[in-house]
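Q: What structure does this chain adopt?
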Amino acid sequence: IRNGVQLAIEDANAANVEIAGKKVKFEMVAEDDEANPTKATTVAQKLVDAKVFAVIGHFNSGASIPASKIYSDAGIPQISPSSTNPKYTEQGFKTTFRVVAHDGQQGPTLARFAAKTLQSKSVAVIDDSTAYGQGLADNFEATAKSLGIKVLAREHTTDKDTDFKAILTRIKGKKPDLIMFGGIDPQAAPMIKQMKDLGIQAKFIGGDGMQTPNFIKLAGDASEGAMASIPGLPKDQMPGGKTFLDKYKTKFNQEVELFAPMGYDSVMVFIEAMKRAGSSDPAKFLPEVGKTTYNGVIGPIAFDDKGDLKNGPITLYVVKGGKWEPLETVKPETGAGTAP
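A:
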C-alpha cells in the first residue's frame, strides 16, 4: 500500500496538479500501527495533530475501526485500500471509505464457491480472533449453513500463534471436506503445513489475508492446492493493470503485492475530489469524495452511502506450481462468476 501511495504521489507531482488554479505538491507522511488497535489510535492522533489532509489506511480492520473515530472527530477523510470488516463503514462516519469489497460480501462468496464449485458437504471453520479474521469466518459460516454445508467445528486461535496441532487434531477426527481459515499468512502457512503432517485430507481455503506470495514462501510444498479469495480483479486484468505493474516493477524492483493498486487509486480519488472542490481543505473536499466516479487502475470506483465500494469484484485463487493462479471472479451482488 505504501509503495502504491508513493507512486501515485510521484505521478501527481510530475503532472503538476492544480487546485483552484494553483500548483500543489503532495507529500506522504507514513506511520506504522503495527496491526495493533491501541497503537492505531495513537498513530491516528499523531496524523491528525500533523494536520494531514487525508488518510490512506489502515491496513488491518482491527486498526482501521478504532482509528476511524479519530479521523471522523477531526473531519479528515479516510480511504482504506484493504480493510474488509463490515463494521468499518457501519459506524455512520461521513469520513470513512474503502476501495475493496467487504467481508459481508467476501465471506458469503467463499461459502458459495465451497458449495457450488468445490461441492463441499462439511467444513471446519477456524479464525484468528481479530476483527478481520473472525468477521470473515462468521460471514462464511452463516452462508455455508444456509447452503446446507455442515459446520462440524468452529475453532479460535490468535494472530500470534503458530502451533495449531491441538485444534487440527480435534478437527481431523470429524473428517470435514474443507477447512476454512479467517486470518493471515503467518498463521495460515504453518496451519496448512501441520494439516499435511497430520494427514488431514481436507481442502484449505481462506481470504485475502493469506492470498500472498509470503504464504507460499512460508508453507512451501504444503501450499499447493490452497485456495483464497481477494477483493478485486486479477492484477493483469485490472483496466490499468499492465501500465501500473510495469511502472511499479521499474520503481521498486519487485512484483505488485496485494493492495498496492488500491493504495494508488485512493490517492487519485482524493486528488480528484480536491480538484472538484477547488480546495485541499478536508471540510471542503470531503463531500466530493462520496460523489466519486473515477476509473482507476482497479476499475470503476464509486461509493455507496456508507462509503463502501459499489460492485466490488472478488477473485478466487488456487496455488498451482508454487504460484497463485486465478480460478474465477465474482460480482458479490449477483453471485455470478466469470472465469478469468
